[in-house]
Structure formats: C-alpha cells, structure tokens
C-alpha cells in the first residue's frame, strides 16, 4: 500500500453538517424525504436507491458531493439551484474532479466523464432489470479523497503471518477474496473505519430488499475482519471509537441475518458479542441496540420472560439518549415479551407507551440503524403481539395496515407483514382472504429469502388445509407445496 494512503500521515477531516439540505427536508422524516427523491428520480428516468440512511449521511456532511445520478435528481427537485445552493461542495474540490462549465447538464450514465468518476462502490454499468441488486447504491463515500477511495475497496484486512484476508463489498453483494501480502498487519485508520461503517449500511440495505438467508454466510467474513482490526489497534482514539462502534453494529447486523434465517444460537452469540463490545467501550447507543435485538430473539426463541428483561434493560440504557422513537421500539419489544407470557394487561400497557412515544416524532438523537422503524413497523409489531395473544381480528387489522403503509423499497418487510396478515386471516376463519394474501407473498419470494417468512407460510398452509375448497386456497396450497425447501447452506 502506497505511503500516501497511510492514515497516520493524514489529518482527520470531520464532516460539516449540510444545514442547507436539512432545511430543504423541512418537517418530513428522512424516510419520507427519501421517498420523494426516488419519485423524482423516476420522473426523469433515473434509478437511485435513496433511503433514510442516505439522507442522514448527506445531512451529516459525510457526502460532500453527490454522484451524477443524484445530482440530476436533486437539480430536478429544486430547479434553479446549484449543488452549492443545496449545501454540497463544488465537484472540483472533491476527489480531484473537474468542475463542469456553468449551465452544462450532468453527464448521462456511461459517458466518458462518468467512467472513471464512479463512486467507490458504484459501477458504470446501467441497471440490469434481470439483476435483483441495484448496482447504483446510495452510498458514495465522497468524504474520502481520491487516494483513500482505493484503500476503502480493500479496507477490511486481517493479519495472520504472511496472509491477509480482504473482505469487500461489490455491487452484487458481499464477496470475499484472499489476498496474499508479505507485510505485517498495520494499525487501522480512517479508511478502515469508513469501510466498516459502509459494510453495516450495505448489509442492512441488502437485507431490507432480499432477506437474510442468502447473506448470512457472506457477511461473516467482514465481521471477522472487523474484530481483527480492533486487535490491530488504531492510529487515533477517535478512529478506535469508530471501529468499536462499527464492529458492534456489524455484529448486530450479522446476528440479525442469523436470527432471520433461523440460526438462533448463532444470533445469540453475535448479539452477546455486540453487547460486550458496547460495555467495554461505554457506548450506550450500541448497548441499547444489542439489548433490543436480544429481546426480539428471546421472544422468537420462546423465552418471553428473557425478552421482557432484555427490553427493560434496553430502556434503562436508552432513556438518557433522548430518542422517543428508540424508546417506542423498545416498548414494543417489551410488549412482545408480555404477549408471550400471555399477560394481556402488561402487553397493552407497553403498546400504549410505544404508541405515545412514537407520536412524539423523530429526533436528532435517533440512531441511523432505526431508519426501518416507521408507522408500518409499529403496526407490524403490534400485529404480532395480538397474534400471540390469539386476538386474530385485531392482529389481521394491524397486519393489513402494516403492509399497506410499508415503503415499496423494503421488499422483505412487505412480504413479512403480508405473511403475518395471511396467517391471522386463516386463523380468524377467513380462508379466501388468507389465500389471496399468501399468494401475494409467494409472488415476492423470488426477491426475498427469509426462513422466517417461509416458516410463517408453512404454518398458514397447515391452517388452510381443511379449507381447500375455498376460493384460492387450493391454488396457494399447490404452489406452496411446489416451493423448494430452503436450506441453510
């Protein structure tokens, strides 16, 4: 690695918040504003995968200048304004790019200018509709200079004698490569910390779209590399803090992939690893997140009392953080535990707290990982509580609202909520409606791989077996029976 890329000789460059862009968002939530960005992109024939995390990174100043696709979309949304008016740095000041003459439109994809000016994880190829992964992900890393960008591509490194394992993220998901190197492992710097944070974002985005089953094994290599970076040490204390936080969040993300694909023991181990990391470094946000997922896992694993305790512990840790939305989610985790204990009163009280806290709205203290938690998730988790309590009518009502409210970007959650709806309708005694919902879930399984969803469908099929003559039920049962059984390889 060239000496110019060694972070020990480079000063830290903390990003400056983009206040102009934040003002343009107004009172909309990041997720709502991201939906407007995607809609504007469709209006001009662009395809961007903007989500709340991307908006958060823009507003935090981590993206100093958007890539050309986003530039076209933003200028379409705010006609008459320049990138500078939107709070971005001039392109000429970012990664050595040349500025365009005034009035010249951003180049189209695939032109000579865009080739070679792609973001570290972008590809200059056009979107392929046959490929389920969008190559133009919304994570540009423009806060890194042009020398650091190549480092970022291969920044996950673990040392073991003369061998270095590099785990990278490609446009088609997670890949791993073994790279031979004759140098000893060096201490981690800013590029490694940035790459670790990027891995967390990419895994979450892919899980939102496609579910956990196809990602879990591929995500294990970046996690091993992350903890190897911690062992190697960091060039600065601020970098060390970023590495610990990133490694903990990555452990939770990988734990969730194990959790959603039915590997409960693996998930429990990953969540415990994240919790230990949080406590060693005194990171209450990470600790609350680890407890939150531990509570969810305990509920799913049939340990409802542990779910209640973990959710209550998360609330104690999270209360000083000042995020009502986080406290709302943690109250829902507690409600799920009370439902598992068949304690209707405790469940209803926790649900009421969750709703009241949710209505307080977003806060600057909301963590980046919580971008999934909107009204749809609130409805979906409440549906699960009523289902556990056997109140199928209430459960189906909330599940239907969850599916209707979900942003189309979160394909996995649409499938999850609709599967919940199908099961609740089947148990409520409405087999024709249940079959229609279940058939919709089957139509999404070419995009989503989730053992949780397949398990739910299998349960629905068992409930519907005596109702084969009802409208649509036979069709669902036949199509479900023809599904290949997902393995864990």
Describe this structure in words.
InterPro entries: TPR-like_helical_dom_sf. Residues 93-143 are annotated as: Disordered. This is Transcriptional regulator. It comes from Streptomyces diastatochromogenes. Residues 95-110 have a biased composition (Low complexity). The protein is mainly α and 489 residues long. It has four domains: 3-122, no CATH class; 154-272, no CATH class; 283-373, Tetratricopeptide repeat domain (Serine Threonine Protein Phosphatase 5, Tetratricopeptide repeat); 387-489. 56% of the residues lie in helices and 4% in strands. It is built from 19 helices and three strands. The chain has helices at residues 19-25, 30-43, 52-60, 68-77, 146-153, 190-210, 216-232, 237-260, 264-281, 284-300, 304-318, 324-340, 344-358, 375-388, 392-405, 411-428, 431-444, 451-464, 473-481, and strands spanning 156-160, 163-170, 173-180. Strands 1-2-3 form a three-stranded antiparallel sheet. Helix 7 (216-232) runs antiparallel to helix 8 (237-260). The longest helix has 24 residues, at 237-260. The chain is globular. The chain starts with 18 loop residues before the first helix and ends in an 8-residue tail after the last helix.
């Amino acid at each position: 690695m060239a000496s110019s890329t060694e972070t020990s000789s480079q000063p830290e460059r903390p990003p400056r918040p983009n206040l102009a862009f934040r003002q343009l968002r107004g009172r909309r939530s990041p997720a709502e504003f991201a939906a407007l960005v995607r809609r504007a992109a469709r209006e001009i024939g662009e395809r961007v995968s903007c989500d709340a995390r991307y908006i958060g990174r823009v507003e935090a100043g981590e993206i100093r200048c958007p890539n050309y696709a986003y530039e076209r979309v933003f200028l379409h949304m705010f006609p008459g304004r320049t990138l500078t008016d939107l709070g971005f740095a001039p392109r000429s000041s970012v990664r050595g790019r040349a500025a365009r003459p005034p009035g010249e439109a951003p180049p189209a994809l695939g032109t000579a200018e865009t080739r070679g000016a792609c973001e570290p994880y972008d590809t200059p190829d056009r979107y392929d509709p046959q490929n389920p992964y969008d190559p133009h992900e919304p994570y540009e890393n423009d806060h890194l200079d042009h020398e650091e960008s190549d480092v970022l591509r291969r920044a996950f490194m673990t040392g073991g004698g003369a061998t270095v394992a590099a785990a990278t993220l490609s446009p088609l998901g997670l890949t791993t490569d073994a790279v031979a190197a004759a140098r000893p492992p060096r201490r981690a710097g800013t590029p490694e910390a940035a790459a670790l944070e990027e891995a967390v974002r990419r895994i979450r985005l892919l899980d939102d779209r496609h579910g956990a089953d196809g990602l879990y094994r591929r995500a294990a290599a970046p996690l091993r590399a992350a903890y190897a970076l911690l062992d190697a040490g960091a060039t600065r204390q601020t970098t060390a803090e970023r590495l610990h936080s990133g490694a903990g969040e990555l452990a939770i993300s990988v734990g969730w992939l194990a959790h959603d694909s039915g590997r409960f023991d693996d998930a429990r181990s990953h969540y415990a690893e994240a919790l230990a990391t949080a406590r060693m470094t005194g990171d209450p946000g990470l600790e609350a997140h680890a407890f939150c997922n531990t509570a969810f896992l305990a509920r799913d694993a049939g340990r409802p009392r542990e779910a209640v305790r973990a959710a209550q512990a998360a609330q104690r840790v999270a209360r000083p953080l000042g995020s009502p939305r986080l406290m709302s989610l943690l109250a829902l985790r507690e409600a799920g535990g009370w439902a598992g204990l068949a304690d209707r009163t405790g469940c209803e009280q926790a649900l009421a707290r969750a709703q009241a806290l949710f209505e307080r709205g977003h806060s600057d203290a909301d963590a980046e990982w919580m971008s999934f938690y909107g009204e749809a998730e609130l409805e979906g988790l409440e549906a699960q509580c009523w289902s556990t309590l056997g109140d199928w009518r209430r459960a189906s009502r909330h599940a239907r609202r969850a599916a209707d409210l979900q942003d189309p970007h979160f394909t996995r959650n649409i499938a999850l909520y609709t599967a919940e709806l199908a099961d609740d309708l089947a148990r409520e005694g409405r087999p024709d409606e249940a079959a229609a919902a279940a058939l919709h879930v089957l139509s999404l399984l070419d995009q989503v791989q989730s053992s949780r969803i397949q398990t739910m469908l299998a349960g629905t099929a068992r409930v519907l077996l005596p109702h084969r003559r009802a409208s649509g039920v036979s069709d669902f049962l036949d199509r479900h029976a023809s599904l290949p059984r997902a393995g864990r390889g």
